[in-house]
Specification:
The protein has about 100 residues and is mostly helical. It has one domain. It is about 65% helix and about 0% strand. It is built from seven helices and no strands. Helix 2 crosses helix 3.
Length: about 100
């Protein structure tokens, strides 16, 4: 009869790993989705896409708070100014957007 080496004997005596329930991971995913909808780009998109949103007011505030060279540079990359410049009108419409701009 052949005797197993000590390493193989230890492996044979170990218990199998327990299967964990995925509730924690699922809850974390749900929280990430809520953050995405409230604070990230989707929140900016939803705020601007609202039927009562006045784009003219946004453009006037962007022109007064951001310099023209910066807005032109963003436009050259096919981006609008509100992507990077928080203006009061946006923050009044959705105060959670402050989180979006702080994450930039």
């Amino acid at each position: 009869m052949r005797k197993l080496p000590p390493a193989d004997a230890d492996l044979a005596s170990q218990q199998p790993l327990p299967v964990l329930k995925p509730a924690t991971q699922i809850d974390f995913y749900a929280r990430l989705q809520a953050v995405k909808e409230r604070y990230l780009h989707n929140a900016l998109k939803d705020t601007i896409g609202a039927s009562t949103f006045d784009l003219f007011t946004l453009d006037v505030e962007l022109a007064s708070f951001a310099d023209a060279a910066s807005l032109k540079r963003l436009a050259s990359h096919h981006l609008r100014g509100e992507t990077f410049f928080p203006v009061p009108y946006l923050l009044k419409r959705n105060a959670y957007l402050l989180g979006y701009y702080r994450l930039l």
